[in-house]
Amino acid sequence: MALPRILVLLFVCLFSLTALSGQESFFEKADTFHQGRFWTISGFTAVAYTGTVIGLNELWYKGFERSGFHTFDDWGEWNQMDKAGHAFTSYFETSYVYDFARWTGMKDRSALWTAVSLGTLFQGTVEMLDAYSEAWGFSFGDVAFNTAGSALFAGQQLAWNEQRMVLKVSNRFPTYPEREIRNGDYTGFLSERTDELYGGAIPSRLLKDYNGQTIWLSVNPKSFFPESKWPSFLNIAIGYGSENLFGARSNSWEDDGVLLSLPESEFPRYRQIYISPDIDLSRLKVKKPFWRMLLKGLNVFKIPAPALEFNLGRGMKFKPLYF
Length: 323
Prior knowledge:
Elements: H1 2-19, H2 35-61, H3 81-103, H4 108-131, H5 140-160, E1 165-171, E2 180-183, E3 186-189, H6 190-198, H7 202-208, E4 213-219, H8 221-224, E5 234-243, E6 252-255, E7 258-261, E8 270-279, H9 289-297, E9 305-311, E10 315-322
Antiparallel strand pairs: 1-4, 2-3, 4-5, 5-8, 6-7, 8-9, 9-10
């Protein structure tokens, strides 16, 4: 999920660099096609695309053997958190490219299909990197959720010309215990396992640590019931997360050829469903075009808020403030 965060930075850099000029019209959509804006956005998109491919190779694929093209059934891995992440990433890639295209003055339908095409290209590149990596492979499940993310955006634009349901992400950074894991005379540590899986740097953990990620479908009731007194910016978000994921399919792994396992009773793998209020930043009534566009760019993130957690066999929990 690295590209949305890079695009957020591009939003900030692009608009901050021009904020000093005081030209408010710069932050508004062009009435007609503007070649200067088009080539500016094309350059930023090319930089984001190239940087993301290089970054993913460094964070994810470096150190793994390359192979010929092959497929891989990964549906049973990571409690499908990776699939939710694919839908989220594809949705916001499509959303950002659409907004950029409209900013250049491109017509609505042309901007939409440009966004869908580039979103497909971005995610397709990741799938091809997987396809030629010995540790992974081309995943039809990933492609399905990539398509679902782009389709969620495109379908709403075609039906309503607005986004009434938005995919978002929130992240927290779980603290893992210095837990010893023994097999005979051999001793491993949970912290070593988490460092191996997720890394220690913030960008790596944001991308890889599924225990700290929640993917949200943030729904705007006011857009469905325009006559109601519900605040136009207040959403209801349904989140999906997982806990105690220390392996793709199970919490067992080999360390120096020795099989290590975490006890299910102490580290049960389970899914979580959340319900929480949210704010649609793009619907806040802000006068300045600069702030409107910046808030829309940051709408990729779910705000911290109280939440109810539901998980199978463990009942309901109230979180006073959930990230």
